[in-house]
Every structure is written in structure tokens, then in C-alpha cells.
Amino acid sequence: MSVSAKELVRAVRRAASPVDDVADAVDPGAAVDELVGTVETPAEGNGAAGAVVPDPGGLSALRKEAEKAANELAAAQKVLDKRTSDLKASNDALTRKLKDLAAAETALARMRRPIADLVELVYQQPVGDGVFSYLTGDVNEEMLRAQSDASALAQARQLQMDAIAKVYADKQRLAAEAQELRATNLLAAAQVEVEVSTLTKRSEKVVQSLTKALVKLGIKIDRVGRAAFACNPLRIDATKDYPNGLIPKNILCPIQQRGHLLRADAAIAFVSLNEAYTRQFGQPMCVTDAYRTLAEQQSVYYRRPGFAAVPGRSNHGLGMAVDLCGGVQTAGTPQFRWLEANSKKYGWFHPDWAYSNPYEPWHWEYDPEIDSLR
């Protein structure tokens, strides 16, 4: 079965689901079924270099759908992380504000107490005859000064009471804002968590479909599913935790050529390329080498000086290079020319240096950025 570029684009667009509208996402199983549907493709030809070949089983389309799902999941996770970070920053700022308000309230209380005590003392100990003297008009300078002081103290006390009332009002306002902000952010974060969960399930379903397709094409999956994990293109970052040539084989994906392993995305792309090659030439590609351990790199380096990268720097040690045989090892053959014309559709290419320095027509590398199906 095969899928045209236009049909693939339409299917991917229908399957695509922005983070904000993830609840309306297309069912992955339906998207996968549509992606692997058979449409017309140009004739295969008889092995010519530029002949266009179909995509058996829709494996390339499945691979791209899995990668797209991974990108959407990563984007949603970034949104969730950003909102979580914003929530923490907002809460920290509000906590500082409330602490400042509490400190201001304490300071005002300390300032208010002496004035209140003094005002109370003035009223308790009036000067002269008090109210009677004031009413009869027998008021001296001392009494007027005392009354003026008492009035000023009362005004000062009232001003401080007003200031304290404002502090309380500000505190209540900020507390209400803090509660509303927390509620809003928590709701937003919860919504993104749901979106992440939905995208995760969607990705898993696509990967399950991809794994089933690989099994049908001869990729061996062991009973506990280790190979299924190793062939999951959403988990290729696991290989980046290890140095060149020291990647555990249980996190590398097997290809159809027994005994050879590659990084998951490179392996899946190579399987697609191999299926197309098989349709074109009637037999699968011949592989002499794929992933190389550091020890294997050292052995090749010393056995074939000038024809191998410095140990620890080879793309073979990253699980992203193969050495081919079966005609491809000789430049100008139909097999070599066909790969030159078609390999980039699957992310594989013959590097420039391998044309001359040193000359290695058999060496091919994987680069997901050049994949024409992206």
C-alpha cells in the first residue's frame, strides 16, 4: 500500500490537533487507517535511478504521524511547564506583597500606641477648671495650648487609624487577587494536564500501530516488548544519555537485516527505505555494518586506517549510519544511483566527504531534517 504526498498532507492536517483544541483531536486509529490507505503512485520502473517507489504498508506515513504526535506532546508539555512556572512566580510575588503589608501594619501599630496613650492621658487630666472655665470664658494660655495639643494628637491618631484601615483594605484586596490568580492558574494548568494526557494516549496509540507495522515487516519483538520500547521514535532521547559507541543495545532498534541495530527513528526510516528498495530490485538491501560499539570502532580504525572515523566520533556509534553491500558499495551501479535519487525521501543520504575523502560509496547516514516526508 502507498500514500501520495498530497493525501499525506491532508491526513496529517486532519489528524493535527492544536494544544488549545486537543479535545477535538481526530482519533489516532482512524488517522492511521487513512494514512495507510492505498492511492495511485507512479510506476516503479525497472531499477532506474530516478524511479519513484511506493511506501509498502504506509510505514513512512506512520513514522511521520508518530513524530508529529511527539512534537505536539512536547509543545503541550512546554505550555504546562510555562504555566506552572508562571503560577509559582505569581505566588512568590504575592507572598512578598503580603509580607510587606504585614510589616507595615506592625510598624503602624507601634507608632499608634504612644500617641493613643498620650491622647488618653490628656483627656484624663484636663488643665485648669476644664470645661467650666472654657464655658465661662475664663481661659488662659496654658489651657488653650493643652486643648490645641489634644486636638492635634487626636487628628494624628485619626490619620494613623485611616492609614491602618487602608493597609487592611489593601491586604484584603491582594489576598482576594491572590486567591483568584491561584484559581485561574490552577484551572489553566489542569486543562493543559488533560491536554498532555490526551496527547500522550494519542501518541501511544500511534506508536502501537507503528510497532504492529514493524512486526509485519519482519522486525523481531521479544516477549517482554524490549524491542518495542527500543523502536519507539518518541523515546530516541534515551540514546543521548550515553556516549558514542556505548549505547546499550536494548535501547536500539533492530532492522530487518539480522544482527544490526540503529537508533529508533533511523531504524524505522531505514525499514521504509529497505521496503522501497526491495520493491525496486526484488531483494532487500545488503548491510555489512550499522551500530558499532566503541570497541568495534577501535577495531575498524586500526584495521582500516584512513577508512574509519576516530573512535568515539563515528555516526555508527550513534546508531545513525550503515555500510551497505549488494551493489551499493560500488559507485555508478543501478543500486547506488537509485539510493542517491531516493534515499533522502527517507532521511538517508550519502555524505559529501564519502565521495572523496575517503571514498566510501558504501557509507550512508541518517538525518531526520532532510526527510522529504516531514
Automatic annotation (TrEMBL):
<dbReference type="InterPro" id="IPR052179">
    <property type="entry name" value="DD-CPase-like"/>
</dbReference>
<dbReference type="InterPro" id="IPR009045">
    <property type="entry name" value="Zn_M74/Hedgehog-like"/>
</dbReference>
<dbReference type="Pfam" id="PF02557">
    <property type="entry name" value="VanY"/>
</dbReference>
<protein>
    <submittedName>
        <fullName>Prefoldin subunit 5</fullName>
    </submittedName>
</protein>
<feature type="domain" description="D-alanyl-D-alanine carboxypeptidase-like core">
    <location>
        <begin position="260"/>
        <end position="368"/>
    </location>
</feature>
<dbReference type="InterPro" id="IPR003709">
    <property type="entry name" value="VanY-like_core_dom"/>
</dbReference>
